[in-house]
Amino acid sequence: MRTADILAALWPERCTGLVSVSGYLIGSQAAGRQPLPPAAELQWWYQYYFATERGRAGYDANRREFAKLIWHTASPQWHFDDATFDRTAASFDNPDHVDIVIDNYRWRLGLTEGEAQYDDLERRLAEGPVIGVPAITLEGDANGAPHPDPSAYAKKFSGTYSHRTVDGGIGHNLPQEAFAAAIIDVAGH
Question: Residue 101: pLDDT above 70?
Fold first, then answer.
């Protein structure tokens, strides 16, 4: 979703609309340095784990177990089966998977530098650009992952905009049919 938000903000001519889970997901290293209340910090425990070499080694050795833990935490009422999990887990075997994941979380905390060739884009993103294309944001009613209240980011959307809370015990992994319906709706604007 971050990539789609960034594309919609910086290159709106390439987007006819945006459907984004958990709202406005354009961040910056400056924002990542801001402390949160303790309960919110607890939700990000794995980000701090990944900041250590022990975290890198632990994730590398336990990719599937780690992902299952996060899936259960972020979507506590989702009773996925092994076949569903295994279809996604195959991507964890990519040789650069651990490096990409660890660098992503370390970058958010300012522990690693981005690539210099993208510094101008990072500066633009750090300003929190408004998204002007038609947009729908989605949140599950049982999302166990850290996420802001929709009112915190509503003003980041200047085009046709709506927020939907998907009911039914839906967590961070919104069901495909809810996401598909939102894409069809935003395409109609």
Answer: yes
Q: How far apart are CA 53 and CA 114, in angstroms?
A: 19
| Average pLDDT score, the chain | 92
| Residues in the chain, total | 189
Burial of residue 139 (CB within 10 Å: 0-12, 13-18, 19+) is buried
> Cβ contacts of residue 94 below 8 Å, gap of 6+?
none
Question: Mind listing the pLDDT tens digit for each residue in 47-59?
Answer: 999 999 999 999 9
CA-based end-to-end distance of the chain: 20
What predicted TM-score, i.e. pTM, was given to this entire model?
Answer: 0.85
Amino acid at residue number 96: D
**10-45 pLDDT, tens digit each:** 999 999 999 999 899 998 888 888 899 999 899 999
E-assigned strand segments in 22-160:
135-140
In degrees rounded to 5, what are phi and psi of residue 135?
-145, 145
How far is it, in rounded angstroms, from Cα 161 to Cα 165?
14
Q: Which two tokens stand for residue 152?
A: 């915190």
Evaluate whether 140 touches 172 at the Cβ level (below 8 Å).
yes
